[in-house]
Amino acid sequence: MTKVYPKVVIPTSVSSDQQRFSSETSTAGRNHDPVVLTVWKKSLLFSCDGFTVFDNNGNLVFRVDNYAAGNKSEVVLMDANGRSLLTIRRKRASITDNWLVYDGETTVNHRFSVTKRVNLLNGKAIANVSTTGSPNNNKKGVAYEIEGSYARRCCVVYDDKRQCVAEIKRKEAVGGVALGGDVFRLVVQPELDSTVAMALVVVLDQMFGGVSRRF
User: Fold this and answer.
1) 3-state secondary structure of 121
2) For burial by CB atoms within 10 Å, which of 43, 80, 106, 200 has the most?
3) Could you tell me which residues are beta bridge partners of residue 156?
4) What was the pLDDT predicted at 196?
């Protein structure tokens, strides 16, 4: 059986920048190479729903351990040591499927929002990532657009200049055999904080995790 990760080593805490999307301390910033993460849609804790994320060296980087499997309105993204990095909450009383992302465990002044695109006939985007205060269905304030199919683990995140800043890809085992949808790669370019990129994965899973169609 192919290993999802080579080893589990608890590193020092992942740094959390106060900027909305980028991080000067990103591991990709020194050599301008993308960060490649292996995402396992499984919590390391028994009876929990969540994610476990490893870097190329097999070190644990991010984790999501949702103790209340039935509660899909709030998810906390943590570093390897269990420190809360971002809290992702579904926006209440919203016509569209809209999620607000906060620093740490705060509940005020969300950092950015992610809105599911309802009318997919007007473009390829399945979700928009917006800065605070922007309208849900207006191009103004949209910082990123996400295109592709999360169900197929094939998504691209574009910035406002149509530059690819992150990708979700199927992961292949040795010999070219594709692994199941529960294990995939997250490729993050230096322009985007990998913490933010992983938060987008969590939101997409909330929006499309139970969808078996092309989205």
Assistant:
1) helix
2) 200
3) 147, 167
4) 97
Question: Amino acid identity, residue 152?
Answer: R
Alpha-carbon distance 139 to 214, whole Å? 24
Q: Work out the burial of residue 129: count CB atoms within 10 Å of its CB; fewer than 13 is exposed, 13-18 middle, 19 or more buried.
A: buried
| Separation between Cα atoms, residue 29 and residue 205, nearest integer Å | 27
pTM of this structure: 0.80
Q: How big, in percent rounded to 5, are the helix, strand and coil portions of the chain?
A: 10, 35, 55
pLDDT (0 to 100) of residue 132: 67
Q: How many helices (H) and strands (E) does the chain have?
A: 1, 12
Token duo for residue 46: 């028994």
Phi and psi at residue 169, in whole multiples of 5°? -135, 150
Q: CA 28 to CA 41: how far, in whole Å?
A: 24
pLDDT digits (tens, 9 = 90+) for 33-78: 999 999 999 888 876 789 999 999 999 999 998 765 555 689 999 9
